[in-house]
Write a structure and sequence with these properties.
With 132 residues, the protein is mainly alpha-helical. It has helices at residues 3-14, 25-41, 46-51, 57-73, 75-97, 104-131.
Length: 132
């Protein structure tokens, strides 16, 4: 999936244009969703993710940092986020299953990411067992 497709889906879902040079709350939150989706679906640098919507890499990092708080405290936003996440990820999985081949580099990247996540979860589980 490409950045342009993600931007289009986010714009359609949130009924806004995340490429606008405004700092309205709705735009900032929609941009943060785009940053998360682009980071987790595409293997692209923060600089390129930000540049696609007229922002720099620091804006991407800032948006991602704030996204956790917004998801924790805003139930309506969390539902919106989960909805668009499912839409984008289902499109991503469908594009892979239609015969589009992943490059070896992308496959290796995803494999390594899963290994790291697995290690983190194992450590968290071990810590929980130690607490009991």
């Amino acid at each position: 999936m490409e950045l342009k497709q993600i931007i289009k889906l986010v714009n359609k879902h949130f009924k806004c244009d995340i490429t606008q040079n405004k700092r309205d709350r709705e735009l900032v939150m929609a941009r943060a969703v785009y940053f998360w989706l682009a980071k987790n679906v595409c293997k692209i640098s923060m600089k390129k993710i930000g540049a696609a919507v007229g922002r720099d890499h620091a804006s991407v990092l800032y948006g991602l940092a704030n996204l956790d708080n917004w998801l924790r405290f805003d139930d309506f936003f969390r539902v919106d986020f989960e909805t668009i996440k499912m839409i984008v990820l289902s499109n991503y999985v469908c594009s892979i299953s239609k015969g589009e081949k992943m490059t070896p580099e992308t496959l290796l990247y995803k494999y390594n990411t899963l290994l790291i996540e697995n290690d983190i979860l194992k450590k968290q589980l071990k810590n929980k067992k130690n607490e009991l």
